[in-house]
Amino acid sequence: MRLRRSNTSGAGYARRRSGRGFSYLDAAGLVIADPELRARFAALAIPPAWKEVWIAPYANGHIQATGVDAAGRRQYLYHPDWRLKQDRVKFARALELAESLPRARGYVTRCLRQSGATRERALAAAFRILDSGALRIGSDRYAEENGSHGLTTLQRSHVSVEGDTVHFAFPAKSGQSWQSSLIDPDVAAFVRDAPDDSPDAPFLAWDDDGEPRTVSAADVNEFIKLHTGGDFTAKDFRTLRGTIAAAISLAKNGPEESKRARARALTAAMQAAAEVLGNTPTIARTSYVDPRVVDAFTAGETIDPARAASAESELRRLLLL
């Protein structure tokens, strides 16, 4: 199907509560009775809690519906073909990120081993944690409205150090509790050198001539782009880490002959990805794990389990053959 770009500010259909269900209205405010249109609207499975629902006038619109969720956030439902296209781009970008990481990591290591609480060192710490720990980048709005945190909104109370191990424990997205540990002497040293170690001080703080400051999500994403040489963001690290976690799990399991054994191995792989990402296995599979890894496993191919430490290059070998 050839898609057309939706104009969510233009004419469309609306949804209105009617008894235990909903009725749908056209641009003139008339109730839709056409069974084919109503079937199309029902198939969209628009969440009942959404308000201010707008539905695309065309079945081939790239955005099929929008609405405001219970938290007051604008949400979107995309055409399946559009999502498929965007997913292909997303997973290809994650592989490109994997190729660019060795050079970027060298610069990050040099920055982390500088002395003092500099801005560049704070940005390098953020890069290393995203690269190794797959944390969400964080949003000031989410932190203020929901009390949920990501990397750039963490406070010192969310981070502790034991030797070379850095522990993270904080309320994350969707009310989940994030707990993870990272063995990294460079990041541990960065934490110990913080300009302000009071519990509510920003974790990614740096010293601006005696004035503590912190880095933002935009700062971190700009640092990523600058030192990888590509149009990457923090979310691409999560896509890459989720895919690699699943690929390593499948490699350790090895190819399976029976359908049931393959299903068990795939379940374990998605659980492994979910643990790295702090998501459910379903979200890991639908949003973060490259489906080509699953297809390769089903065809009897995995990354080399003996080369799991070089998982990025192994992943590229597997998927770009």
UniProtKB/TrEMBL annotation:
<protein>
    <recommendedName>
        <fullName>DNA topoisomerase</fullName>
        <ecNumber>5.6.2.1</ecNumber>
    </recommendedName>
</protein>
<feature type="domain" description="DNA topoisomerase I catalytic core eukaryotic-type">
    <location>
        <begin position="82"/>
        <end position="286"/>
    </location>
</feature>
<dbReference type="InterPro" id="IPR013500">
    <property type="entry name" value="TopoI_cat_euk"/>
</dbReference>
<keyword id="KW-0238">DNA-binding</keyword>
<keyword id="KW-0413">Isomerase</keyword>
<comment type="similarity">
    <text>Belongs to the type IB topoisomerase family.</text>
</comment>
<dbReference type="Pfam" id="PF21338">
    <property type="entry name" value="Top1B_N_bact"/>
</dbReference>
<dbReference type="InterPro" id="IPR014711">
    <property type="entry name" value="TopoI_cat_a-hlx-sub_euk"/>
</dbReference>
<dbReference type="GO" id="GO:0006265">
    <property type="term" value="P:DNA topological change"/>
</dbReference>
<feature type="domain" description="DNA topoisomerase IB N-terminal">
    <location>
        <begin position="21"/>
        <end position="69"/>
    </location>
</feature>
<dbReference type="InterPro" id="IPR001631">
    <property type="entry name" value="TopoI"/>
</dbReference>
<dbReference type="InterPro" id="IPR035447">
    <property type="entry name" value="DNA_topo_I_N_sf"/>
</dbReference>
<dbReference type="Pfam" id="PF01028">
    <property type="entry name" value="Topoisom_I"/>
</dbReference>
<keyword id="KW-0799">Topoisomerase</keyword>
<dbReference type="GO" id="GO:0003917">
    <property type="term" value="F:DNA topoisomerase type I (single strand cut, ATP-independent) activity"/>
</dbReference>
<dbReference type="InterPro" id="IPR011010">
    <property type="entry name" value="DNA_brk_join_enz"/>
</dbReference>
<dbReference type="GO" id="GO:0003677">
    <property type="term" value="F:DNA binding"/>
</dbReference>
<dbReference type="InterPro" id="IPR049331">
    <property type="entry name" value="Top1B_N_bact"/>
</dbReference>
